[in-house]
Amino acid sequence: MISFECDYNNGAHPQVMRHLMETNGEQTLTYGFDVYSDNAKEKIRRACGCPEADVFFLVGGTQANATVIDGMLRSFEAVITVDTGHIAIHEAGAIEARGHKVIALKEEQGKLRADDLRAYMEWFSADESRDHLAQPGMVYISFPTEYGTLYSTEEIERIYATCQTYGLQLFIDGARLGYGLAASPDVTLPWLARHCDAFYIGGTKVGALCGEAVVFPRGNAPRCFFSIVKQHGALLAKGRLTGVQFDALFSVSAADPSSSSAIDRSSLHSADSVGNRPHDEGEPLYLSISRHAIDMAMRLKALLQQNGFRLYIDSPTNQQFVIIDNDRVRELEQKVLFTHWGPYDAGHTVCRFVTSWATTENDLEALQFIVHR
Fold it and tell me: What are the backbone dihedrals phi and psi of residue 119, each rounded to the nearest 5 degrees, phi first?
């Protein structure tokens, strides 16, 4: 079996594992107060171009979403997203479990439209009974979206401007942020940091064993956010686990002087292991391995289309959605792991194929052999 099922069913990138092993015998401070976490936070601040940023490492994406949303909202406030938003459908009611209503607006290619957000807020503001409603306090979007699509800078600017008009905070889910940045023609980490109130850099799906880096770009973390993280069960006692990993992911070269342990680049992307794209000089490992995933995804898309698969949505990122005849779905699933996203019609299913930092040339060649007719 070959797997295109998701981007978090591998272990960690070899350089991340090497850094973990090299530092394994050391004793450090706990709960993220270690030197590696400090190094990683400083590297992230530099990569984001915001030296005053507050950075916190949390264990996973659902914990990051639930903790940030609960920490930034008051008890009676709600969060606005789209009806395909991760917090609306794939987090087991984690947001509602903390007492915050999720207001789901209609998506368009997985995205929230600024005009729809404005229309909702105008309706809310005009309602004489609004004090009896859950009060909107935040907007949540994902970059990339759950359908692998991307917001342009103009779209995010319009959403953020609408948020500011109505006193809403903008929070960006970055579980796959590396892949979004690698595929986007205009969104960068520094630009993103200037156009939201909080976001996170996903590690779990982009080269780490686990962990997400939550960034409050203007030093605007909620009061006592460390305690809020702990209260949500999102804090590791061995905080170095995430710190060491992000220290490796945001190293820009083997000779990075700010790294407490230099990272050897020699194992990156051999053809028989984790792809063939070299680590670009001057670019964090996080972005370099994300670009590899996008290279693989574009080749995957072409491969699927050349073999008669119809795109459900034209995604520029590492998630590719295709419409497949149900008989062929049953045939393919005997040899390939992929996600059955949902029915398209009585005879077809929307299926998702995903690449990652770990996708290889051999994976694509094997898939080509299986699907070729």
Answer: -60, -40
Per-residue confidence band for 280, with pLDDT thresholds at 50, 70 and 90: low
Torsion of CA 71, 91, 298, 288, to 10 degrees: 40
Q: What are phi and psi of 253, to 5 degrees?
A: -165, 170
Q: In angstroms, what CA-CA distances link 177 with 30, 34, 41, 173?
A: 27, 25, 17, 8
Cα four-point dihedral sign 107, 112, 114, 116: positive
State how far the Cα of 336 lies from the Cα of 352, in Å rounded to an integer: 12
Burial 86-108 (b: 16+ CB within 10 A, else e): bbbeebeebbbeeebbbbbbebe
Q: Partners of 140 in the beta sheet?
A: 171
Tokens of 199: 């976001």
Q: How far apart are CA 161 and CA 148, in angstroms?
A: 24
Distance CA 122, CA 48 (A): 33
List Cα–Cα distances, 1 to 69, 293, 340, in angstroms: 39, 20, 16
Q: Are the C-beta atoms of residues 13 and 207 closer than 8 Å to each other?
A: yes
Q: What integer pLDDT is reported at residue 282 of this predicted model?
A: 78
* Partners of 348 in the β-ladder: 325, 345
Would you state the pLDDT for residue 326? 97
Whose structure tokens read 């940045």? 181
Question: Any idea of the CA torsion for 157, 162, 165, 168, to the nearest 10 degrees?
Answer: -100
pTM, to two decimals = 0.92
Specify the residue for token string 């996708």: 359
349: left (phi over 0), alpha (psi -120 to 50) or beta: beta
Rounded (10°) CA dihedral 22, 25, 28, 32: 50
**Which residues contact residue 362 at a Cβ distance below 8 angstroms, ignoring those fewer than 6 apart?**
271, 272
Query: For residue 352, how many other CB atoms are within 10 A of its CB?
Result: 20
DSSP letter for each residue of 93-158: THHHHTT--EEEEPPBTTB--HHHHHHHHHHHHH-TTGGGSPEEEEEEEESS-TTS----HHHHHH
Q: Tell the burial category of 51 from Cβ atoms under 10 Å away from its Cβ (0-12, 13-18, 19+).
A: exposed
